[in-house]
Amino acid sequence: MDRLLPSDPSAIGEYRLAARLGAGGMGVVYLARSPRGTWCALKSIRAEHADDPGFRARFRRETQLAERLGGRWTVPVVAADAEARSPWLATAYVPGPSLAEAVARYGPWPVAHLRSLGAALAETLEEVHACGLVHRDVKPGNILLAADGPRLIDFGIARAVGVTALTTDGSVIGSPGYLSPEQARGRTVGPPSDVFSLGCVLAHAATGRPVFGHGGVAGVLYRTVHEEPDLEGLPEALDGIVRRCLAKEPEERPSVGELRDFFGEFDGRTWLPEGLPALVAARAGRVLDLPVPQGTVLDASPVTAEAETPEAAPTPRRRVLAMGGAVLGVGTIGVGSWWRWGRSGPSGTTGSGPLPRRVVGLLGDKSDPAFTAQERGARIAIGEHNARTGRAFDLVLRIADGGGTAKGAVAAVGRLVADPEVAVVVDAGDNATAPAVVQPCTQAGVTHLVVRADTNELDTVNVTSTLLMRPTRTAGPPAIVRYLNRVVKPGRTAVVHDLTDTEATLPTVRSVTVYQKLTGEVGVEEVAEGRGFDAVARRIADRGDDAVLFAGARPDRAAAFARALRRAGYRGPCVTDEHALGARFLTEAEGWMVGTGYTDATADPRGKTFAKAHRDRYGTAPAPWAAEAYDTVRFAAHGLTAAGDEARATLRSELLRKPWQGITRRVSYDADGGFFEALDDPGWFLYRVTDGSPRFVSAADDIGH
């Protein structure tokens, strides 16, 4: 429990806020006092997540379902407002500790107490499922301990607040170590998934440890899907039923009805193990000592939901949901504008004078060689556009230097979007700066096209004006996976996961383990931050693995691993992605295959014309990311041509209207799924390290053909 921040509202609806119970990407959970004086846990969802009309419908529907729950072991919904700018939901407050805290403090539970816990949770899940809900996040942290029994919290709400990107098939929600194999794979889940999670909870409470171990998320998910749980120390009386709960196939698990029959009725006399009643009482006493809630946001009148201060910037995400109505009803604008502008002559004039102009803002760090490459690619695209006979407008490039920092990028893009002539911002920045630019572009209503960045912070950008012109890391490494599957065809691949950058590298590991994108057997070797690679390299060499995939984001770490492999005598195929590229890695990694999001326009047949234009203009071959920036500006020009007079307002909608093919990738909007993505045809490319340099091999879709 933490104090309110000065930026927190004093009240939401009729509920006065007293403290913060927790916060996350979706919103904040407050301790609040109701008009009648009772304490509640009030979850306020960030306003930007509610801009999707579909979200509000889901939130409203599932809140109504949750309100039907009235069992002994549920936490009742006491109020909710799905129509507020920041939707919120209030439930009764349970002051006790979580099961996770209780086990960590006092150790495993005896069998009699586990039976009471199992009886209560099975009864709760039966009621939840009968109401049409699947909890999907049954874990020790979501089970609160009260004097009279446990309370399962957050059921149904995760489904409502997860927004489309977190609830559709193909994504993973829940807590690794407690979610089912089908949930870990991003598949549709039903009541058996909650049964699996309950088995994990009971085993944890019985043994004091998670059944699929600790460590990196990818490793835990892999063990959940492919390995048996660690049930050593599980009491014999519970062994059979827990093992059935943890069956890999949903149909092999017991129903909640069977679980109720096994555990019987809840026995309050054998509810809390020794030591816990005093802890529960102490937590309840803390609430009694709280003062009357005081105001935070300065306001002469009581603060209502409408008076809340804006929340933080939206969490950037790659899969972009179309705003309601934004993609519809604008076709006639493009047609009418084409009729007015379509008769310009080769001199760049119309019958009434010079052509209109559209300004393309290019944002980046002028000291970064990758920015120079992108600037050159952008200028070639603009020159080609302006040389076309019959064009509707001229393009002008305006550069803004953000200095390579998030703060600098925000200031620079602010200058761009303040100019009404700027119709689009092409972001040539990297993972450190691109996410910071999402909010200011969205607030200004300016389309933001990201060329190079692939951070997970840009995964599923939700209800913003940002479009990603390349897949993020969550798409996995198609080029190196295709190389392994189509060319090497390994019987066993060692996936070495460098935990120095777990968040950045987890999607790659997950794609080749949990989602089984690699054929053949896969083994995961995790290397903690600061640890060397010699031991892992020796194990790989001793086993004689057929291939090695390095999942790491730092060139120095990749270089150290490549050196360790060589010392260990391993000579098999090795692959990694573009984030490993650096001078030290290139000197150590002769023969390694590297997957990238950029092409070599001089070697890729699709880029020959562009490469010639680049050489003619600048006297050199195009550097990495030049062709991708060229494509991005051409994509923007394509949309601006259709957007007509209201270029800034309608550009994003026009860009989403139909697929577009460039020389480096194809981009497309999926109206049914509600996401925009850069596809891997070609999109991803394969290089080989030869004589200390990366040499282009092929586009991903050409590998093995």
TrEMBL record:
CDD domains: STKc_PknB_like
Superkingdom assignment: Bacteria
UniProt keyword terms in alphabetical order: ATP-binding, Kinase, Nucleotide-binding, Signal, Transferase
GO MF, one example: kinase activity
Record domain Protein kinase: where: 15-263
SMART domains: S_TKc (SM00220)
Signal peptide: none
Binding-site residues, ATP: 43
Family: Belongs to the leucine-binding protein family.
Name under which the protein is recorded: Bifunctional serine/threonine-protein kinase/ABC transporter substrate-binding protein
Organism encoding this protein: Streptomyces fuscus
